[in-house]
Amino acid sequence: MIQFHTQVAIIGAGPAGLVLANWLKKYEISSVIIELRSREYVEGRVRAGLVEQNTKDILRELGLDDRLNKEGIVHDGVYLSFDEERIHIPFGELTGGRTISIYGQQEITKDLTDAWLADGETLHFETKATKIVDFDTNSPKIHFEKDGEEGIINCDFVAACDGFHGIGRKTLPKKSFESYNITYPFSWLGILANVAPSTDELIYAYHQNGFALHSLRSETVSRLYVQVDNEESVTNWSDDRIWNELTTRLAAPGFDLKEGPIFEKSITPMRSHMIDTLRSGRLVLAGDAAHIVPPTGGKGMNLAIADVKHLVDAFVDFYKNNSEVKLDNYTQTALQRIWRAQDFSNFMTKLFHKQDTHGSFTYRLQKAKFDYIKASTAYKTTIAENYVGLPFESFIN
Ligand code: RFL
Ligand code: PHB
């Protein structure tokens, strides 16, 4: 039986687990990461692209923002469209200079993995956490399997950064939390295409055919999404059909959508999910393990990294100041931001998706909201500050 000992044992090499490990190292707190998938799989998985100001600040603090600065594309605003009418929300002007960057999640994951391994630290890929035990004592353990062999990590804390399908949340005692869920009656079909973006900043659009989003990854790669029914399969969506829908839904005066070869197509269901505790004894949860937001606000990865900031504060307080106060407050501190992001993601989802027949009461409420945003600097500011991410200080009681 393989055995390790570390201070914080981390399950999952997604953004949450990797930021946590790299950050704890700065404070000389040891950790080991185990990851179910292979390195190629994790680094190839296409997911987030929108990086908030706070996430950029954290990566800078960790000294891991070199490539983000070189290859990431800074956006100072976003376009919102409704029935082919387009408005602009300028971030810098409305938020005192805060911006977002477009930089793929898998690039962040690569940067964090490279830094971790370059320092000779431990990250076991293709290693499955099977059980978390004794987290009600000071010596919790993770049981794992690697290459058919079983092992145990003995540690002071288990950090479950193991995503929505991980074992962290399932291990929490059932009676210790409430869960909250919304399943939306639509999904996103996302594509990557070898074509220069047709826009300088992201476009979120409501159209009577459904939602569309124009995002990007680089000067030569565009990332776009269309709302589809939950039962849809990518096989029903030829490249022609996708480009036709995108052209229709993103239409606006003076706008021309450039088409190009599609090299990735996938469907993502839309859900909001929450639990109201992130800790039980020596087991803590961060990121998608504890919450899912629909991707319409670009918040999931950013929220995962924000959880980790609070967790690092708590571990530093524990190891350096011998205090459990921040650990005891971890759930409440993190939940404030998580609920804020849940609200914003739900707001963006409901504003831009087709929820009912075009012209219905619901449609008219959506349109009234858009018209108000158009007319009101206060409303635009609300959207801008949520979109770029509220500063951590905003949430201190
Ligand atoms: P992850 O990234 O899911 O990582 C969890 C890791 O845990 C591993 N794991 C295990 N390892 C060992 N043993 C086990 N038993 C394990 N069980 C699981 C998994 O293999 C995995 O590697 O969670 P984390 O770190 O919390 O990060 C969350 C983000 O990945 C997620 O919220 C974002 O991708 C959401 N998201 C977006 N977020 C943004 O901030 N901005 C965006 O623009 C954005 N766009 C998106 C998105 C998600 C999307 N999809 C596909 C869901 C766009 C899309 C289409
Ligand atoms: C992306 O670029 O993949 C992206 C951008 C903004 C979102 C969701 C996804 O709201």
Broad structural category: alpha+beta
Query: Ions, cofactors, ligands: which are bound?
Result: 8-demethyl-8-dimethylamino-flavin-adenine-dinucleotide, P-hydroxybenzoic acid
Largest beta-sheet characterization: 8 strands, mixed
CATH topology-level fold name of the largest domain: FAD/NAD(P)-binding domain
Number of strands: 19
CATH class of the largest domain: Alpha Beta
| Morphology | globular
Task: Compute the number of structural domains.
Answer: 2
Question: If you average the pLDDT, what whole number results?
Answer: 97
| Count of runs of 4 or more consecutive helical residues | 12
**What is the radius of gyration computed over CA atoms, rounded to a whole number of angstroms?**
21 Å
Helix content: 25-40%
How far is the first residue's CA from the last residue's CA?
Answer: 47 Å
**Name given to the CATH homologous superfamily of the largest domain:** FAD/NAD(P)-binding domain
- Poorly predicted runs: none
CATH architecture of the largest domain: 3-Layer(bba) Sandwich
